[in-house]
Amino acid sequence: MTKTYAVIGDPIDHSLSPALHNPAFAFLGLDCTYIAYRIPKGDLDDGIQDLKKIGIAGFNVTIPHKIDMMRLLDETDEECKMVGATNTVVNTGGHLKGYNTDVDGFLDPIRKRKIDCKGCDVLLIGAGGAARAVIVGFAKEKIRKITITNRTRMKRQKRW
To answer: Which in 46, 91, 122, 154 has the greatest CB count within 10 A?
Structure first.
């Protein structure tokens, strides 16, 4: 039986995820498909119930749902707890487990280049959803201080 995976968000039409994942599934000989599934802000609960009904195997989460998705999870990994957001969900018989791969995705190139951030001061430009993962990543690297700046005052003043 074909396993179905998705990326959820709004807007979602611009996502390259199906174009990347479907050829990978084919190359690996996996009986899987990957779709983009639009869930408007405010419709997350119903959208997730619909995905459960069709037996979705898992999904990636993008704007505006990374934070709100946390309350619908049955279980989370440590990264999710630290970041307060999820970007990957696995569905096992209706049990949703959330993961956050953004932290490692951010840290991987820094570690590969052997850049030592310990004790450094960091200026983070932007306070959107990815900023949470960047902050957790830098905390893991034991930086000394993070200064966050943003073009809109509301996000800049928000407490993490």
So the answer is: 91
Q: b/e map of 99-129 (b: 16 or more CB within 10 Å)? A: bbbbbeebbeeeeeeeeebeeeeeeeeebeb
Asked if the peptide bond before residue 109 counts as cis, ω within 30 degrees of 0, the response is: no
Same fold? 3-100, 103-157? yes
Could you give the residue numbers annotated as active site?
66
Residue-wise pLDDT tens digits, 21-42: 999 999 999 999 999 999 999 9
Residue type, 142: K
Task: Tell me the domain boundaries of the chain.
Answer: 3-100, 103-157
- The CATH class, in words, for 3-100 is alpha beta
